[in-house]
Design goal:
mainly alpha; 533 residues; single chain
Length: 533
Amino acid sequence: MTGTGKLIRLALRRDRALLPLWVFLPWLFPLAFVAAFNSGYPTAQARQEYAETSIHNTAFTVTYGALHGSSLGELVTWRAGFIPIVVGLCSMLTVIRHTRAEEEAGRRELIGATVVSRHAGLAAVLIMAGGASLALGLLSALGLISQGLPAAGSLAFGSGLAAVGCVFAAVGAVVAQLTTGAGSARGIGIVVLGAAFLLRGIGDVSGKAGGGLGWVSWLSPIGWAGQFRPFSGERWWVLGIAACAVAALTAVAVTLSGRRDLGGGLFHDRLGPADAAPGLRTPLALAWRLHRGALVGRVAGFALVGFALGSIAESLGEMMNNSTPAAREILARIGGPGTVVDQFLVGMMTMLGVVSAGLAIQAALRLRAEESGGRVESVLATAVDRLRWAGGHLTFALLGSTLGLVVFGAAVGLAYGTSTGDVSRQLPRMLGAALVQLPAVWVFAGVAFALFGLLPRLSAGAFAVLLVSTLFGWVGAELQLSQWVIDLSVFAHIPQLPGGEVRVLPLVVLTAMAVVLIGLGLVGLRRRDLPVG
């Protein structure tokens, strides 16, 4: 463990901007849900009616988990059922960033040449990620207690978040040993997270329906957060399961780390052909080769989500019609002046817009990954200038998000139109509602590209900008904050379609902002040195 303390300080310094974001932002959502339920469902009878309607909705159970009661605490923690997914993802990616990515960039070898033990780096990042998860859990518990909720249930909710964060930090430590590239490790980790979400959904749905697969949710670390049963008979012994999982996964990671070579992985890279294929003769073709896997997965995922949301939109609208006037007022603030179904779909379109913006940022930051990995020098050593090279990746950041939202809007329109018997009307409505998100998505892609060109070391800060913008837009509406605060969100300026009025000026302004940001990135890229470590 020699040198672990200093490496912890180094990791904290490097993550001094990102770490507070994934600790503090998830903490705010439960507080927003307390305010929303107090406003929309102020009486026990109203909450009971809401719970009775929601508990049998399969889509809600898959998304948020099983609902065990109708008290304020139970409803708030159930509505926050997506937060463990976010915490697990952030924790896992943090560990991969400080292990496999450091090794891939060559910095691990430099640090290893000093007086540090072989596993000091792994121990340091696990301690940091675990400490951040515990801090998030404690803040969440104290936040709910400050809202008047029982201390035992609040602590159980916070313990569930902390347990999920620690488990997926250990998962990140394991997958970091499997491959030679950080991108591949992230891909494997996201698949594991998705499988955990799927297992939680299958188990909870089966358990509510009285099926025989309720035990499956116990196989999912995400499901363990709900198994704590906050505010409905707390199960503190679930902490023991999480602790055993963390210990076992950490032992596996340490064992694998000790048996492999520095820079190597359990899965070795296959040698490529001696000569490149004809389709790799241009920078755009190379960018297609690098982005095609993620693009195909994104489009397929958007299609599946679109069909699912379109299929359940009508039934969700009927449920929301039975809510209190205050709840419908909140929905109107978020979703605009249309019908209840339209208001629900506005929220879903905005949510997919945020997801698409995150994916566009990730695609734009592939430029930074190529630069940090030393591969851009080989490309620019040929008859390719840096703007053509960057343009290939930027094309997929912009057009890839466009294609994803087109597919999503078409899928929602077909599914919803089929359920209402009016495909010819709903398909263009939903397609238009999806496409108006594009200027906002392009703005965030432009932010990522501008940071890459001007301040490459801060490129990942584009995700922080997206998180803050999303927080102001979503939570600000639920908490009835001042309009100027809500207007800090880029998505607050998007027309609320379907159902709202089409406003061209905000779309033109946002598109112009994206163009300016991309232009700044191009100017910065032409003037700065490559690569910048």
